[in-house]
DNA sequence: TTCTATTCATGCTTTTTCGGCATAAATCTA
DNA sequence: TAGATTTATGCCGAAAAAGCATGAATAGAA
C-alpha cells in the first residue's frame, strides 16, 4: 500500500467514475482500475461496489474516504511544520542582554519577532555586560546584545547593530543644562555613578577615555550595573552618570539627559559554531529592527 | 513521497545507522541511502545530519519521527476499523420482535451481542406479531423475530431458532392445576384472553387448532397483543389465556402456568436481498444464542 | 603511525512495478 | 439492434527500486 494508491482512491471516491478520475489523476483508466484493485487486496477491504456501468462506495469505503481526507490534511500540516522547524520559524531562542538594550533595540526586536516569527519563543535574560560573553560561550543563551567589540574572539561572531550618543545624566535641579554644557569637566566636582566595568571592557575605555581627554579622574560615588538604579540615585542627588541616550525613553524620573559627542555601539553576538537557522533568522530580524530604529530621541 | 520511504525513515531514525536499518528493512544499504535522500529532496527537509561515520536526527527530523509514529498508529487503527465495518462488526442493526421473544431469546442475544460485537449497536422495536413482516419488508428494521412460517415469501428468508411449549395461563385461585389438568376443554366455561390474530397467521391456526381438537369454540373475553397486559387481566380473574411458556420467566403476577403439549416455534427473519455482513453476523449470533438457550423453565 | 573495520555514498546492472495502448465485456440509450 | 459509455484484462515499454561492487572517510586498534 502506498500514498499514491490512497490518492487514487480519493480521486475515484470523489467522482465515482474510474474514467473521469483517471483523467483528473493524469493516468489512464486501466492503470487506475489496477491500482484500486491492488489497494483493495492489500487492505483486505472492498472499497467500491462496481459493475460494468456504475461505481459506488461501500460503507467501509465511505469511512476510509472520510478518515483519509482527515489524515491527509494532518499529514500535510505535519510536513509544513517540519519545514518551519528546518527554516528556523519554530522553536526557542534564548536572548541575553545588558540593561542598556532595554530601551532601544530590544522592544523593536520583540515586536518584529511576534509579527514575523510568531512560532518562535524568545526567552529573555537580562544580565550585566560583563556576564554576557561567558553566558553565551557556555551555551546558556543563544544570542546576546553587547556593547563590547570581540571581533578577535575565536568562538563568537559579532555584527554591529546601531550606534547612539552617550549622555550625561544629572538631577533635574542640577546647574548644568543642555544650553550651558560645554564639557564633562564641568562635573569635576560631582560624584559619578557608573556601572561596574572590568579592565578589559571596551566600554570602560570609552567612558574613561572621555575623562582622560578632559584631564580629570572622576570620583566614583556608587557602582551599579542597572540603569534604573543609577537613574534613581541621580534623581536623589547622589551623583551624576553617563548612560546611552536611549535610557531617556524609559525614564519618568526627575533627571536631565545632556547629549554628548561620544557614540556607543550595540552589537549582536552569537556562537561561531551555532548554525541553527533560528539564530540566523533572529540575527536578520535584529538587523531589520536596527535599520528601522528611530534614534531621534530629541523629538521623542 | 511514498509510505515506503516513511517506513524507511522510521527505520533509520530508530537505529541511526543506515547499514543496520537496511538489514532490518530487508533491503541493501545503498538502496536505503538513496530512498532517504529522495525523501529529503521531496520534503525539502533535511532529516539526518550525517558524515561518513555517524548519523543523527535534525530537529525537524526528530519532530517528523515523533509525528509519523503517531500518524502511523492512527493510520493502522483506521484500516482496522474499516475492516471491522466490512466484516459487519461495526454499525447498527434494527431488530423487530413480538413481545413473546422478550423472555426467551432476546436477552440472550443482546448479551452475546455485547460480548462478541461490542461495536454493533442494536436498536430494538417491540411490535405486534402482525406488524413484524411488513415493517421488515418496508426496510424499517433489518431483522425480526416471528412465530410465523413464511418460507414461501419471496422477499424474506427465515431460520428456525427454537421451539417451546405453549401454556395455559390461569389465575392463582383458579380450580385448574397442573395436577388435575387433562384438557383445555376444562376451560370451556372460562373467557379467553388472546392476542389479536389475523386469519392468515399460522399462530392463530395453532391456537385455534387446539380448541377444534377439543371440540369447542372459546369465548373471547378480551384481545391484547401484549403479554404483560394479558397476564394482568388473567390475574384479575377476567379470563384465562394461552401463551408461550417462557412468559413465566418475566412474571411475578399471581397467575399459574400449566404446560401444554403443543409447541410453538420462534423464527428469525431477514430480507432476502439484504447481504449486509451485519445481518449475517447477527443471524449467526441468534443461532448461537438459541443453541445455548435453557428452556427448562420448570426448574427456573 | 599504520592498518583494519565500519559506515555512508556512488556507479552500474538486474528486477520489479507502473503506466499506456488495444481491446474485451457489459450495459444503457436511441 | 447499433452505438456510446464504462470497467476489466493482456501485453509491452518505461520508470523506479533494489542489488552488487566499490570508493571514500574515519574511528579505533596494533
Write a structural description.
The structure is a homodimer of 300-residue chains. With 300 residues, chain A is an alpha/beta fold. The first copy, chain A, folds into two domains: 3-86, Arc Repressor Mutant, subunit A (Orthogonal Bundle), CATH 1.10.10; 91-291, 3-Layer(aba) Sandwich (D-Maltodextrin-Binding Protein, domain 2). Chain A is 40% helix and 23% strand. In chain A, the strands form three sheets. A six-stranded mixed β-sheet of chain A has the order 4-3-5-10-6-9, with helices on both faces. A two-stranded antiparallel sheet of chain A has the order 1-2. In chain A, strands 7-8 form a two-stranded parallel ribbon. Chain A starts with a helix and ends in a 9-residue tail after the last helix. At the A-B interface, helix 4 of A face helix 4 of B. Chain A binds a DNA duplex (30 and 30 nucleotides) through residues 4, 17-19, 27-35, 37, 50-55.
